[in-house]
């Protein structure tokens, strides 16, 4: 193969659909979740060092940015769990028809937001 | 490796503009990817104004019209023009398909035509599919049977025959494989939806005697398990087949046997 030939455009031109959006978001939320778990571990470890640290963290979490961070992480976890459930069903061989995959993808997207609101209301 | 940006020599530039000369009032702009191996230039997008009053219904008809009436230098593969041979697979408005079965009335706005994604371009809309053909060869797509009796038919029950429905119809046009991001990033190692659907077609054939060996052969982290059910393949297939499901069936067979 002549390697000097150009490569035809790929991700630059290919149109997105529900299923590919869910797939890429699944990956991104996966990375966010790993970072979030590390953050939570650090937070817990920090608490061991004393009560004043708790106050600092509490102050941070009650700020606008802190709340945004927490809600963002909750959404990321919700999305990951729903998308994972979709993956499990697909591993069993279900939901590969275009229509079904579109519906299950939409369930994952909207479900993640609904679940986030739900968890927010419980934890408030 | 995941490489989002195109290499420097593949960056697409703005090309020539071919204005309509017929004076038609029903004009559609068609943007086509052009690259000429005899010139040392980057690929470009040429724009053609096409008189739609005198053009038949499919995208291939537009290409033929441009080649016959506007610019004979344009290169693309085509043969049967009825969705049987799979030659005219290309990317139209962001989605792979066969130009001969795709109606241009289904496409919105200006029509953008590119070669199949993430292939080495040979000329204009013609991509190099030799890697895919080598992979196809590697799955040994022929019946393996110890039955040396040539006198009688090798019979199959109606139920066993039905298992091949949705598989045997594949025309190997490569629309699915070249729509798959996993195949873009790992095309050398991952077999891709087209070849895996073919692999499954032979695995599930009741007359074939090497099911185990075939399964073992594709049971590989890179060859098979790079499928992440993005479903671009099923979405692209011009024959309405479901390569993603075929891959899932192979995975299921491997998990349960």
Poorly predicted ranges of chain A (pLDDT <50, ≥5 residues)?
none
Structural class by sheet pairing and helices of chain A: mainly alpha
What is the overall silhouette of chain B?
elongated
Oligomer: heterodimer
The beta-strand count of chain A equals: 0
Low-pLDDT stretches of chain B: none
Mean pLDDT of chain A: 92
What is the H/E order of chain B?
EEEHEEEEEHHHHHHH
- CATH homologous superfamily of the largest domain in chain B? Alpha-helical ferredoxin
Layout of helices and strands, plus pairs?
The complex is a heterodimer of chains A (124) and B (257).
Chain A: H1 18-47, H2 51-62, H3 64-91, H4 98-123
Chain B: E1 13-18, E2 27-34, E3 44-51, H1 59-70, E4 89-92, E5 95-98, E6 111-114, E7 121-123, E8 126-127, H2 130-138, H3 158-162, H4 181-186, H5 192-203, H6 211-218, H7 232-236, H8 243-256
Parallel strand pairs in B: 1-3, 2-6
Antiparallel strand pairs in B: 2-3, 4-5, 4-6, 7-8
Helix pairs in contact in B: 5-6, 5-8
């Amino acid at each position: 193969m002549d390697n000097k030939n150009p490569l035809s455009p790929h991700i630059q031109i290919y149109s997105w659909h529900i299923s590919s959006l869910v797939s890429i978001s699944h990956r991104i939320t996966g990375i966010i979740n790993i970072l979030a778990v590390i953050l939570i571990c650090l937070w817990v470890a920090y608490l061991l060092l004393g009560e004043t640290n708790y106050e600092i963290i509490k102050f941070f979490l009650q700020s606008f940015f802190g709340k945004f961070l927490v809600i963002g992480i909750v959404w990321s976890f919700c999305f990951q769990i729903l998308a994972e459930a979709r993956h499990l069903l697909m591993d069993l061989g279900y939901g590969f028809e275009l229509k079904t995959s579109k519906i299950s993808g939409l369930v994952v997207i909207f479900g993640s937001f609904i679940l986030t609101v739900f968890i927010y209301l419980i934890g408030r | 490796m995941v490489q989002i940006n195109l290499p420097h020599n593949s960056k697409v530039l703005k090309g020539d503009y071919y204005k309509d000369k017929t004076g038609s009032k029903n004009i559609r702009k068609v943007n086509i990817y052009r690259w000429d191996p005899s010139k040392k230039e980057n690929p470009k997008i040429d724009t053609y104004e096409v008189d739609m009053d005198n053009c038949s219904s499919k995208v291939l008809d537009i290409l033929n019209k441009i080649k016959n009436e506007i610019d004979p230098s344009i290169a693309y593969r085509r043969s049967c023009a009825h969705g049987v041979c799979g030659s005219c697979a290309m990317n139209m408005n962001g989605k792979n398909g066969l130009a001969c079965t795709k109606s241009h009335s289904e496409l919105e706005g200006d029509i953008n035509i590119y070669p199949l994604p993430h292939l080495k371009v040979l000329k204009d809309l013609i991509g190099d599919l030799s890697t895919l053909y080598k992979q196809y060869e590697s799955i040994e797509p022929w019946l393996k049977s110890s039955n040396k009796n040539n006198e009688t038919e090798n019979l199959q029950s109606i139920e066993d025959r039905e298992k091949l429905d949705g598989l045997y119809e594949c025309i190997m046009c490569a629309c699915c494989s070249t729509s798959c991001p996993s195949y873009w990033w790992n095309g050398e190692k991952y077999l891709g939806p087209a070849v895996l659907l073919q692999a499954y077609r032979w695995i599930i054939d009741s007359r074939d005697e090497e099911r185990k060996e075939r399964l073992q052969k594709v049971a590989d982290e890179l060859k098979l398990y790079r499928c992440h059910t993005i479903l671009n393949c099923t979405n692209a297939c011009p024959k309405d087949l479901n390569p993603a499901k075929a891959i899932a069936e192979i995975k299921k067979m491997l998990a349960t046997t």
